[in-house]
Design brief:
The protein has 13 helices and twelve strands. The chain has three domains: 55 residues, 434 Repressor (Amino-terminal Domain), CATH 1.10.260.40; 120 residues, Rossmann fold; 128 residues, Response regulator (Rossmann fold), CATH 3.40.50.2300. The chain is an alpha/beta fold and 345 residues long. Helix content is 43%, strand content 16%. The strands form two sheets. It has a six-stranded parallel sheet with strand order 2-1-3-4-5-11, with helices on both faces. The chain has a six-stranded mixed sheet with strand order 7-6-8-9-10-12, with helices on both faces. Strand 6, helix 10 and strand 7 form a beta-alpha-beta unit. Helix 2 packs across helix 3. Pfam families: LacI (PF00356), Peripla_BP_3 (PF13377). This is Transcriptional regulator, LacI family.
Length: 345
């Protein structure tokens, strides 16, 4: 069956046969061996040819079943977990929650690592996970592009996004903290302690960062405070970026900052201390995540703590019980990194 015929029959609601490598080869005008190499991501094909073949396979709904023998013997009860983007260690708590809950429910867990900032590798990993014909897929990610979500959506396999969500696509179910509320809560904490010139440091340009930016802006606007673009600085949530970004606020234009992650906060503290600043007297910092890092800094970091372990537990339940998207509540933990101001500086 040609690709155009397949898509036409599918749109009309007509019965279509399960796509095979032979079908894909015919639609693409290549040999079955070429299709096999493309679907296995072999490097001995022209990139344009391989991409076209994989696109046709995706449109036809093809996924290689490498676990047919397991399915035939009812040896399923498996959850595939894809881990992507690990600049911070948030995924460890999530994975521990997944493993704990899966073990309670007699499910095995297969993990796939998709690297950092590698869209092609992430797409390849999603396809590899689909080939295992698990009960479902859990995607732990700080970043995800529409291409990977579309692959999951068309695969007819249950999935949940963890720690990331897109309100413009509610059909893609998720388990996450509410990043808008996190940004707003952290900013309001500083506002209530007298700070008026508040920066936002270390967020990224992707969904999570932009949602936290919106929460920050909402809190500042509600308090009647100015939003100065020079107080907003982007990064990758890492410790090294936190150290580098201190130079952006070293002019003293802000009295406090919301750090995009605990690692950003720790990096800021380190750089400020090395520069001879007194903290929190000269700079107050509230961070986001609630990792153990907060208790290893001097002063210890006040943080908006995400319950990553519960996120993992809930994601398994939501996946296996077909439950709706869920926000996991956060907790603000006060420590020593924020100094109240009696009046505006």
């Amino acid at each position: 069956m040609r690709k155009d015929d397949y898509n036409k029959r599918k749109r009309l609601g007509m019965k279509v046969t399960k796509p095979t490598i032979k079908n894909i080869a015919r639609a693409a005008g290549v040999s079955t061996a070429t299709v096999s190499r493309a679907l296995a991501y072999k490097n001995n094909l022209k990139p344009a040819t391989a991409k076209r073949i994989r696109q046709i396979a995706q449109e036809m709904g093809y996924h290689k079943n490498v676990a047919a023998s397991q399915l035939a013997s009812n040896m399923t009860n498996t959850i595939a977990v894809i881990i992507n983007y690990t600049q911070t260690d948030f995924w460890i708590g999530i994975l521990n929650g997944i493993l704990h809950r899966a073990r309670e429910l007699n499910h095995q867990v297969i993990t796939f690592y998709a690297g950092d900032n590698d869209s092609r590798r992430l797409t390849q990993t999603v396809n590899e996970a689909l080939e295992h014909q698990a009960n479902g897929i859990l995607m732990i990610s700080g970043k995800m592009e529409q291409e990977q979500v579309e692959i999951l959506s068309t695969a007819h396999m249950p999935y949940r996004l963890i720690s990331i969500y897109n309100p413009e696509h509610p059909e893609h179910r998720y388990v996450s903290s509410n990043n808008v509320e996190i940004g707003e809560q952290a900013t309001n904490y500083l506002i209530k302690r007298g700070h008026r010139r508040i920066g936002l440091v270390g967020i990224d340009h992707y969904l999570t960062g932009q949602q936290r930016l919106f929460g920050y802006q909402r809190a500042m606007t509600a308090a009647g405070l100015p939003i100065n673009p020079h107080w907003i600085h982007y990064g990758d949530y890492s410790y090294q970026d936190g150290k580098k970004l201190f130079s952006a606020i070293q002019d003293g234009s802000v009295t406090a900052v919301v750090a995009g992650s605990d690692m950003i906060g720790a990096g800021l503290l380190k750089a400020a201390t090395q520069a001879g600043w007194r903290l929190p007297e000269q700079l107050s910092i509230i961070s986001i995540d609630g990792s153990d890092t907060c208790e290893l800094t001097t002063p210890e970091l006040t943080t908006v703590s995400q319950d990553f372990y519960q996120m993992g537990i809930t994601s398994v339940d939501n996946l296996l019980q077909d439950q709706p998207s869920t926000f996991i509540p956060t907790t603000l933990i006060e420590r020593d990194s924020v100094q109240p101001l009696p009046t505006e500086k």
